[in-house]
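Much of our argument rests on the idea that a fold can be written as discrete symbols. Part of our work consisted of pairing the sequence of a single chain with a tokenised description of its backbone. No coordinates are needed to read the tokens, only the vocabulary itself. The record that follows shows the chain in one-letter code together with its fold in token form.
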Amino acid sequence: MIAIDQDLIREVLKLPEGFVDDGHLPLGETWSLGPCVDTRDSDDLLGQTNVAALLKDLAARPEFEGQWEIVHADHWACGWVSHLAFRAVDDRGEPTLIFRFLLAWNDRLDGCADEEDYSRRQYERALERIDWHRPAGCEGPEDMNARIFGWLWENTTMDTENNGHYFITEGEVREACLELGYLEVEHDQLRAAPKPTLPPATGTAEDGSSRAPEASEDQPPQADSREATP
């Protein structure tokens, strides 16, 4: 159990520099702005899982009704932020029950608060990424993305990024589509075929510049790749 002293109370009641709110809560007096739980640019799946679990626990406790609230505010760097504001002290300045609960909840947290929720979020984002990377001409059943995920799970490392997303490349998705028969080889080869290039000019003109070889009866003349000059 974390001891709550006056230094900790002052710390949680301190508002960020330049913070402005609408004044409907006594933030900085008896209420703490609380931890940041979301931002416009946040895409941290583990963080989303843990926040969802915490809010679910708070909502399940009627004794905390009216003691916490999600507060939204504009932010110069990331557009907007959301905080879990809570009443930190009572009218006598003593730590509240919800303050103690939040400290204990965070102290008990060991990485992930809900493995099932976290896995679901990872899976759903993986399907979105597969759909984004799926090559044109790929045809299959309605659950094609799920089947591609299954193939990737069995045949690739399925590493995760720092934000919890599975690292899935366009090449891996294309390979899965080919192996599962959702993409014809001919179509994939046509898609990946390099663009034709003109042959390099050979020979030297009287002025020292390069020129194409002269055409013969068996070989039609080739277009000069140099831009025409007036």
Notes: Confidence is low (pLDDT under 50) at residues 201-230. Strands lie at 31-32, 36-39, 68-75, 79-87. The radius of gyration is 31 Å. The longest helix spans residues 115-133.
